[in-house]
From TrEMBL, chains A, B, C, D, E, F:
Gene Ontology molecular functions: hydrolase activity, acting on carbon-nitrogen (but not peptide) bonds, in linear amides; metal ion binding
Protein name: Amidase
Family note: Belongs to the creatininase superfamily.
Reported cofactor(s): Zn(2+)
């Protein structure tokens, strides 16, 4: 069930039997010559929506903009400062906790978000931990699942693309986003496989290192048909992780 | 053209002939017994997407969560503090300005966002205005269009619902969101028309005043078929406003 | 009763019979060739002081600096960033709520403050709304009255100045500020009526659009004698609004 | 010349011959049984206004609310958090520097403001100092003068009240504020001289230590006639300090 | 060379031949029954100091407090909120960059810091990336090395403790901190090996899961003599990483 | 007892008989041609450690970086913005209060920290004072002792150096830091005694005024042997102040 398509009374009914919710989080950033700017949001969103439908889990609105400062030298990239993204996630989590959700599970599509999402979790926990046992608050567990690290998806990528999968604008994520968006954008790559290196730098440095935006990948191997398979496996990976997460019992 | 579905090179090509972009902004909040939680995001998003397609305007990712603190006593509502939303909009605008966009036009679906969006514009302008003429920055114009105030849409609502249109969970927005989401949720209303009053209060007070979440409306009059008509008129209203906005020339 | 002139024991006695307080808020910004930089603070302050005396309402210290970034290209303008003004209003309101005030009523003299003041109210309410029903806090109602939108004052301005009243450095506010400050500064206007346009822009753009600072007005029509009449009507308008506001009952 | 009563063109003319401005800063806080809540703002404001008139110095709007957290257990006190006051002073100073003011001189009426004002100065300087010599900014000197520490005023207080002057709600400041407000509020004190102790504590502790709000003072000795003398000496003290401050030459 | 023990002229001389500096960062948090509260700071600090001496690298002051919210239910733990630690690292890095340092290398002793340190790096880069190519700033590379993940140290821990090394209050870090502090605190462990689980939770939950503070470790195996060996290997690991980092060339 | 060298169980035992803790705070900034960059941290740290050992007081980790913006034109200086240092101290104090510490005593080595530390105390108190008597929090007293203002130390400095002690890079602090660091750095001074003036300015202005970083001092008179004597007297001064501070009883 998508929160955006539910009424508040349907949410109330959902809360009577489950305290868990899934929130997709991505990024709006360049993904090389043939990848969509929205790739990192489209991938976790499509997985979350399919999972929500198959398993009756509530899915919140996608956080489509993430921490993408290193991609800002490419047109179309939008980035939140880490401090801004921490505030967004804090308010989102506090709103959900206010309604009685105890397990908030983020499905993430962007490696560059991981540190900031974890810092945001720690910011939320800090308020509770500093207050100590005087706190009257209900328990809260926060989970982060990076779909691109799921076992099943990794195995398929290895089988389809071997070393040409790469690290940014990967063949797998370009495929899944194409499938989710119902499009394909065939572009010839030059060089076929992009250079590798560290993405932990500012935007000018990043563009110097990775002139067309790709990192170590050959996404000319991508196809929407592949994307369909990544979606199915992504749902299995995420569902497994979500079920384990629900078993995580915070102090109350 | 949706930014999420474009490559960075397509954005680069777009910038060669236009410096304007449209960003939908909404809210994730209760909309009464039959309205969708995502109503305020779905409405401007569907208008922006249709406008973008018809007129070749680039449309950024939807800011689905807005300032909805007064709705927090109803399950499903997610709200950003005004200070958080200001930071989000500042980072979004600064990212776009970095690429050379000079006209950023927000299509808004939520009355409760207006004050904070305007404060965010002033926050962005403040940095430039405090620096004075030493600033090397390019000109920047920020626009806000509230679709629910568009002339054509207002006229249709008056014709279809007269005084039962109301102020929150209105018959028109419920219709448009149903059409956008491809759903209808018929629910009997009691009382048929909801009470009126001020929404400028905290969440507990709001719920006391408006027990089922509606303000002055009878959205049992809504239908997806109506929504289709509101979409068409919303695009006309927004396109007219966007064209006027592009004529707004900031100092450079 | 002016808070600045009261002892704390007088405030304590006041609180025994009333939980309402009035706070004037203005701006320190250019007001054209003959208008005072303090116009937007002097107007609501003089109204609040007169109202306080006539009706025994406590009046807090004037917030003389507001959000005036668009006027910063004219010497003498002082502006708070929206985020700063939100913090000031939050601390002011929290201090008053701490003493048991439940109704804080701002009389405002500056259109450019409206969005930020409303965002500040929402910021204060957000804290309460996010805490939910666990909150032990007392009820709180926040009101904003823009004196320049009062019915009686509008009618007098229409009668005296018709279309030459304008939108900034208006004939009416220049008159009232002159009366409040006990001064008149006759200056010939050229052009007689200033150009119109949007003030939602940065400071350089504003000065380009409005070279002498006025927007659509001819304040050479102003006089302190007019100001005296605007003061009397402003008090009537504000008193009516304040009484209605006291009837606004938040949840407790 | 009071900025509030000037036009922007008068400010422009002033800047042609002087780059200095005076800003009064006070507090809104209890001042014992017979002292005005606005004492700490009224004192520096009346000194600044008189100085401005006598010596042709521009005087900005009074910052009437300061850092008064320790007085919050007494009704009527309004306090800004230090972080808020730092932001207010930063924006005020940056606005003035934007117009070309190089010397901003605060006349302060509240001991509890000193640390925060100095922290605010350091916050403003930090931005410049971190940017280093690449900075294109004009020089900036920030001054703080505490009127209650002026030599001439101290001597008169010692002569009139000896040890009964005290540390808060002092006989001298109550006198000056009475004179400035045109009022006298005779109240019998019990004990005649208030207890002494540290004010660096929270509000509950402060009220426990100083039950009627006074610290070490007997303000029943105060009179408006005394206040008139403190005003004259305060102007002399402040003028001497301001002239010395203008000789302070920052790097440009 | 330790910065704390250098004069500014010695730093100036150092900058003439090297633009790199090492900053130890740790945490002040419980480390089980026999581990020191300062373990996470003592470990990277002792490695940095020894490396600095052996290889002539400048070592800045240790950031002894980190992000340790999950340990706050144990007395002695001090934690910075992530947002605070981000600000500290931003100011530290900006200060160093001001002097011409282009490579700032953090040696970290606490897993819980990693996300926040990376978010802080991104916060610093964001300012530069948002400004774009107009920026006049010098290049900047930021590095993070977690001593406890160094290859040589890992191998020794595996050899000495096998699976009893654990994840918090590990046998290796307790040994190194003992050696650095010149102390040993033999305490019997019960159970001998602590339970395992996730540390991503609030403080109350953490203490419930890990009653004596250890995670999966048996630090009764620790000894200062082991610590001496971990120090030597830690220096080798860090030196290798630092040299690689200096080869990282940001855009200038 | 140093917190860094204690286990959490030792801290727990300490809390059973004392609720006070000492935290050294300094700065990382130039101290003239022969003074150590870490002088302001080394001095209070060595005093705190010796005091802690002699009197069994718990000593927290040293805050080695302070507010030193005015020294940033000299290589090696690291400065926190006042707003950052306020956040650091707030989190440190809240962490300690969480464990039941009621008296937190900072021994400070840097005059430039005083305003910001006091602002930080006020920031912490503000949260409590704004909440009012509804607050369930335990009492909290915050103390600041500037070792360089201790009576015994002042007397020795006057005897050894008379007027050549100076105001920054003083002969006494250089001596104590040399003793603490086990080093001496003899450098000839020219001029022998540095110029005097105000340090309340930005970094460029400071360096113009004080070309080698000293203010009014002749630290060529310094010696580690002197430092040993300043340490002993500093411990006596601080111990006296700490005992008085423990007698300070906040409301509970």
């Amino acid at each position: 069930m998508r929160l955006q398509h539910a009424t508040w009374q349907e949410v109330e009914a959902y809360l009577a039997h489950s305290r868990g919710i899934i929130v997709p989080i991505g990024s709006t950033e360049q993904h090389g010559p043939n990848g969509l700017v929205g790739t990192d949001a489209l991938c976790p969103e499509s997985i979350a929506w399919a999972l929500g439908e198959q398993h009756g889990v509530l899915v919140g609105p996608t956080q489509a903009i993430g921490m993408a400062q290193h991609h800002l030298a490419f047109p179309g990239t939008i980035s939140l400062r880490p401090s801004t993204l921490v505030a967004v996630l804090r308010d989102t989590i506090e709103s959900l906790a206010r309604h009685g959700f105890t397990h908030v599970f983020f499905i993430n599509g962007h490696g560059g978000n991981i540190a900031t999402v974890k810092a945001a979790f720690a910011e939320v926990y800090s308020e509770r931990s500093l207050r100590g046992s005087h706190s009257a608050e209900s328990p809260l567990a926060l989970g982060l699942f990076n779909w691109f690290m799921g076992r099943r998806g990794r195995e398929l990528a290895a089988k389809l693309y071997a070393d040409d999968e790469g690290y940014h604008a990967t063949a797998s994520e370009v495929s899944l986003a194409w499938y989710a968006a119902g499009t394909e954008k065939p572009v010839a790559m030059s060089p076929r496989v992009a250079p590798n290196g560290s993405a932990e730098c500012d935007a000018e440095t990043f563009r110097q290192r990775f002139p067309d935006g790709r990192m170590g990948s050959d996404p000319s191997l991508s196809s929407a048909r592949h994307g369909e398979r990544f979606l199915a496996l992504g749902v299995e990976d995420a569902w497994e992780a979500y079920q384990a997460f629900l078993g995580d019992t915070p102090a109350g």
